[in-house]
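User: Structure please.
Assistant: Input sequence and predicted structure:
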Amino acid sequence: MLFRTLMAALLGAAISFTATADDAPRMAIIIDDLGDRLPEGRRAVRLPGALTYAFLPHTPHSRPLARLAHNLGKEVMLHLPMDSVNRDRLGPGGLTLDMTHEKFRRTLLDDLKSVPHVRGVNNHMGSLLTRHPGHMGWLMAELAASGDLYFVDSRTARRSVAVLLAEEYGVSATRRDIFLDNVRDQDAIMGQFQKAVTFAGKTGAAIAIGHPYPETIGALQKLLPQLKAQGIRLVPVSKLIHRRNERSIEQWQASLYPSQRAAKNSKP
């Protein structure tokens, strides 16, 4: 976890600056909104590569599809419904601003139990709730207490405080970089996919989010086999978060200890 690792560094823990053997840029792809429809869910889960699948709680097919994904070696997430600015219908298991702390907690724990093999959580909608520090604090406290669960902010609100609160509670967290299919057109989706590849190449890592639409599945069937040739490694979200945290630590540590040349040049 980033916060705890940084604290360990401050106390003098040794951090290696040696680059890993595989320094290729990473890309994680999350397929959201799974659990309501079985045929589309099966097609999505059987896509090639280390995709990550986010299941809505208490949906008719979330359990069997999550088990199938896990058995195929894929990573499973809870796609957690949260209050939006427009107060859109959340479906079962939604977290709302008017909940008491206890009701919020019980609902969240029931949601986590409803999807097997969960490794992390991302928000479904949430443009209202992710802006509220108190409720995000409740969420992160429970994620921290429930085990080594990570959080991905889908970034439905520019003023989201979700990642900031996650770091305060010691929860590994990151943000979505690219939406693949806001426009349900295969050419547009392929263009967004290439933006994610370019972003990963520039920054070292990218998280893209798509949905089990026929257009998205068709585009990914064509594009995923090309990733290796483009020098991009497809990884589960948990490994991408670990990579981003490592790089953040290295950058932070490097800022504390300038190079010998910089130190020499700084002498009067």
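The chain has one domain: 26-261.
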